[in-house]
Amino acid sequence: MKGSQTSGRRAAGSDGHVGRGPIVIGGTGGSGTRAVQRALEAAGVFMGTRLNDSGDAMDFEPFLDSVINDILLETRSLAYDPESLSAGLRQRVHGAFRAALNDFRSDLPSDAEGWGWKNPRSMYVLPLLATQCPGLRFIHLVRDGRDMAISENKNQPRKHYAALFNAPENKDDPLQPDPELSIRLWARANGDTAAFGERVLGPAYLRVSFEQLCAAPVREMTRILTHAGLSEARISAKVDRSAEEISAPGSLGRWRTLSDEIRKTLWAIAGNELSWFGYPESAG
Question: What is the pTM of this model?
Fold first, then answer.
């Protein structure tokens, strides 16, 4: 029965590996979060049982749908103080999150080598997670925003651009935000998340470049598994297997095929964040 104690499972707050804080993966949709979710799973980390085809933990999806825009409408930021939310919203957000977390953890095996979940939009509630999840470790996947600007994955811009930027919804084409809007959201969302992670989470925050992950999967997976709290012996035994889950998609670096005019426009919007994350201005 859901949420009951059965052999091989423990409730939230138990001792051992399952008593550690969660390992949460977030980022812009299409930035490689799925690859890291599979890699952690291959290393023995419990990443949930109710997953969609992209490996998102669906226990959190209704919660994220119900609270993100209301938070953004009050804060216009991803780097907010949860205590600054209005009392009613704060109470609703906390209650909805605890319910989602309890559902997720109801299937948590007692012998899991750590636990956590992947849902790219977790970065929109990172300040909440930081206060509600002691021992949280956050893995922030970043991919070149110009790739993201021309991606077919428009889920986050479609759902959250208007609330984040206090902009009217695009009634003419609500399902296909243009590249300029997409990269503007990419810059703000990832910039706010990185700033909050570095300032508030410190060593509990790990930023991973998807391009570097594809170029050096063993090295980057070693960083990720270390951040996840796995033992050195476990990392040595599992890192090669986890690295096998990483492969560069054919779309990596697709922004280089754009015209000079479009590349200059995208850089003008997001050049500060692109430079911060180590991405070059030139396509050469």
Answer: 0.91
